[in-house]
UniProtKB/TrEMBL annotation:
Name of the protein in question: Fe2OG dioxygenase domain-containing protein
Domain of life: Eukaryota
Cofactor: L-ascorbate
Cross-referenced Pfam families: 2OG-FeII_Oxy_3 (PF13640)
Gene Ontology molecular-function annotations: iron ion binding; L-ascorbic acid binding; procollagen-proline 4-dioxygenase activity
Originating organism: Effrenium voratum
Keywords: Dioxygenase, Iron, Metal-binding, Oxidoreductase, Signal
Signal peptide limits: 1-15
PROSITE patterns the record matches: FE2OG_OXY
GO cellular component terms attached to this protein's record: endoplasmic reticulum
Domain Fe2OG dioxygenase: 247-388
């Protein structure tokens, strides 16, 4: 075969110029073991963008798994000039919306993030084209794809190896991340300042129980400003997590003596579950209302994204970190049990990294974890929490200014239709209760949630003839479908949602 024939064959077979780069960024579908959840990583999209004959082309493997039939589309070549338009168009093609998040108050959700393989946040279409392969993360922050259990990747520019120990929850181990001398220095700093570990009571499970049934360690918070070692670790960890240092909390050093433990819990805040936050560090009010807490954490959108857990000593026996929902296991009935689940043995200098949120920003209940009782010796460890938004409220979010998905008229899937045949559809809700608007893509079961229509209010959408809109009674795709509307070719349409069996469509 001549070189020329070979060249044609290779190019016919190739779906995109990124074909040989996907493997490190997509996770095996078989690695998702749970029967009660979708087998993918919600909200992490592996996307290839390239220029061909003057147009931008795109191929996307949605939700972090290799698809037989990935999304393929053309983007307007001129988009490379305007970042805001590029982002909007990309979002239209990938058909996701801020509202994949389950907390409501979508204006508080972070703008989505686009990252190169090196973990750098990209901020122009030219950078995206230069990168070729990019990770689009709906929750806004870098998220390491687990790929499969046992997958090991080097952290570029460093000697550290990141090893996947679980896919659901997403958990990694990095051995030798801290030097033994560093661990000793940290223990010394904390030792003189230990106090009883606080715990935020989970009302749902532990209303009448004393904190002691839940957590029995002692702890010390160490501000980085007091120590050059801690400042260096802030940077080392930020390089590992690919999340800026402004997102981290002061490290919380923990000491577990013989028999001490921490029952299963998650590290992120679920506003519905936490009521008495008196014990929460930095909160001194004895009674703080649920409403205030919801506001403080941006109604759930400002939250702990991930934990980097430091092992500062070896433990002779016990003291493992337990993930009771790993390996597809059901939620444990007894939060104090260390019998079932993935157990990680403490090893001085090793850190574990796990995600408490999914890539789309929702809480991941699989991230439930415990510290099993120490059976021999003592355990020193530390919690290092990284949030999905900067801790300082005055720092603005990157791309917030170009992300106007929820203001004014909204557009979807612009690239799938011809220019100029757009339609303005107004949905008017005459019911005394809110209704919820979803766009039903023609080729996918997953609907795009576009927002709430308040009682007696109207929402206008830029849409196209043939588009299908679903009106549901809840903000979740599983809630009851009230009606499905197919857009006609009238340039302006008003769809009135009332108690009539069939909604009225006024064609103006
Ligand atoms: C991490 O550090 C290495 C070595 O300094 C550097 O090459 C790399 O760009 C850093 N990565 C990020 C995401 O900051
Ligand atoms: C230790 O605790 C004392 C009293 O609570 C405090 O004044 C001091 O700043 C703390 N030191 C460190 C290193 O945290
Ligand atoms: C309190 O803890 C005990 C023992 O751990 C448990 O049996 C009981 O159900 C708990 N009470 C509540 C209200 O959860
Ligand atoms: C800790 O345990 C590891 C193996 O589990 C061992 O290689 C290392 O030497 C131990 N370190 C100390 C200080 O005991
Ligand atoms: C909608 O169509 C009009 C022409 O009917 C055109 O001027 C306008 O640019 C279109 N808008 C979009 C966003 O496609």
């Amino acid at each position: 075969m001549t070189h020329w024939c070979l060249w044609i064959l290779v190019h016919l077979a190739a779906g995109s110029p990124c074909d040989d780069r996907y493997a490190a960024w997509v996770t095996d579908r078989e690695a998702f073991q749970r029967d009660d959840e979708p087998r993918y990583l919600s909200g992490l999209h592996v996307v290839c963008v390239w220029k061909e004959a003057g147009t931008l082309r795109l191929e996307a493997h949605m939700n972090g798994v290799l698809e037989e039939d990935p999304v393929r589309s053309e983007l307007d070549g001129a988009l490379s000039l305007d970042w805001g338009k590029f982002r909007k168009s990309l979002q239209g093609v990938l058909r996701f919306s801020k509202a994949t998040n389950e907390w409501g108050n979508f204006h508080l959700k972070q703008p989505y993030g686009i990252f190169s393989e090196a973990g750098h946040r990209l901020s122009s279409a030219t950078e995206v084209l230069d990168a070729g392969l990019v990770l689009v993360v709906e929750g806004g922050q870098w998220f390491w794809p687990p790929v499969r259990i046992g997958y090991v990747r080097g952290l570029p520019g460093t000697p550290y190896m990141i090893e996947t120990v679980s896919v659901q929850p997403v958990v990694f181990r990095v051995r030798g991340f801290l030097r033994e001398e560093e661990c000793s220095v940290i223990i010394d700093m904390a030792e003189s300042n230990m106090s009883e570990s606080p715990v935020v009571q989970m009302e749902k499970h532990y209303r009448d129980n004393d904190t002691k049934d839940f957590r029995t360690s002692t702890q010390a918070r160490l501000p980085s400003s007091d120590s050059s070692l801690l400042q260096e670790l802030d940077k080392r960890i930020s390089n590992l997590t690919r999340v800026d240092v402004t997102h981290n909390e002061e490290v919380q050093v923990l000491r577990y003596r013989l028999g001490e433990f921490y029952a299963s819990h998650t590290d992120n805040f679920d506003p519905e579950y936490y009521q008495n936050v008196a014990a929460w560090p930095k909160f001194s009010c004895p009674e703080i209302s649920l409403e205030l807490l919801k506001d403080f954490i941006d109604k759930g959108h400002r939250n702990r994204l991930l934990t980097v857990f430091w092992y500062l000593t070896n433990v002779s026996k016990g003291g493992e970190t337990l993930f009771p929902r790993a390996d597809g296991l059901p939620p444990p009935e007894d939060m104090n049990s260390c019998e079932r689940g993935l157990k990680v043995r403490p090893e001085v200098g090793t850190v574990m990294l796990w995600y408490s949120l999914r890539p789309n920003g929702n809480g991941d209940p699989n991230s439930l974890h415990a510290s099993c009782p120490v059976e021999d010796g003592k355990k020193w460890s530390a919690n290092y929490w990284v949030w999905n938004k900067p801790r300082d409220f005055s720092i603005s979010l990157p791309d917030a200014d170009v992300d106007e998905e929820y203001s004014g008229e909204q557009s979807v899937a612009l690239s799938t239709v011809e220019a100029g045949n757009n339609v303005s559809a107004t949905f008017r809700n005459e019911h005394p209760f809110p209704m919820y608007l979803f766009w039903k893509p023609p080729d996918r079961a997953q609907e795009a949630f576009l927002g709430e229509i308040s009682p007696q209010a109207a929402v206008s959408m830029l849409t196209f003839p043939g588009h299908i809109w679903h009106i549901r009674i809840g903000a979740d795709q599983s809630s009851e479908l009230v009606t499905a509307q197919v857009i006609t070719d009238q340039p302006k349409q008003v769809i009135v949602l009332s108690s009539d069996p069939e909604p009225d469509v006024d064609e103006l």
